[in-house]
Specification:
203 residues, alpha/beta, 9 helices, globular
Length: 203
């Protein structure tokens, strides 16, 4: 039987982690996370980290030789050409990790959490697309609070991604996280049930 592969995406700080935590705890669904794979791709001693250090110099590394994520963020969130270079380096590695994990999984339903699902061209890996959204001001305030950024820094991170409107336009399911947690969880329950019935998937 064909696996049901949910591609969960949305804007930064819209609530993807809340959704995945619920899917994992309430439905025991396996969660494959692009951010975790991306961190593994640039782990200490990896060829990708070596290429990054060669491009930006020792300033991009912490004293222990691992990647200085804050320094890299300052570069890529303000320079589109550098962000593209980094993404072109990391995304193929992340894709390979997804493909391997999907092939090895015995579960019939998987959740792929991919913040850059559209931008990275990974929509072909999933059978349905769920987009988490909230209002732009909510997103901005959540990001400022979570990452301890000023408003300008937070806006730069939001602007680096495809607009939420474009993501919503290409979604099978839209989870509006602008209200309460209870409302969001009900939307998830309904989406899991409805899309399964619509697409004739079996749990």
């Amino acid at each position: 039987m064909t696996k049901r592969i949910i591609g969960l995406t949305g804007g930064i700080a819209t609530g993807k982690t809340t959704v995945t935590n619920y899917l994992a705890s309430a439905y025991n669904l396996p969660i494959l996370d692009a951010d975790i794979y991306a961190r593994e791709a640039v782990s200490l001693g990896s060829p990708i980290l070596g290429a990054i250090a060669q491009r930006y110099g020792e300033q991009i590394l912490l004293p222990d030789g691992s990647l200085n994520r804050q320094k890299l963020g300052e570069i890529i969130f303000n320079r589109q050409d550098e962000r593209k270079w980094i993404e072109d380096l990391i995304h193929p590695d992340v894709r390979d990790r997804f493909l391997k994990a999907i092939a090895q999984s015995t579960s019939q339903t998987l959740v792929l959490v991919v913040p850059l699902l559209f931008e990275a061209g990974m929509t072909d890996l999933v059978t349905e697309i769920w987009v988490v959204r909230c209002s732009q001001e909510q997103q901005l305030q959540r990001l400022i609070q979570r990452n301890h950024l000023n408003r300008e820094q937070a806006q730069a991170r939001i602007n680096s991604q495809l607009s939420i409107e474009e993501k919503v336009a290409n979604a099978d399911v839209v989870l509006d996280n602008s209200s309460t947690l209870e409302v969001l969880l009900k939307l998830i329950d309904e989406a899991l049930k409805t899309t399964r019935e619509t697409k004739s998937y079996l749990s």
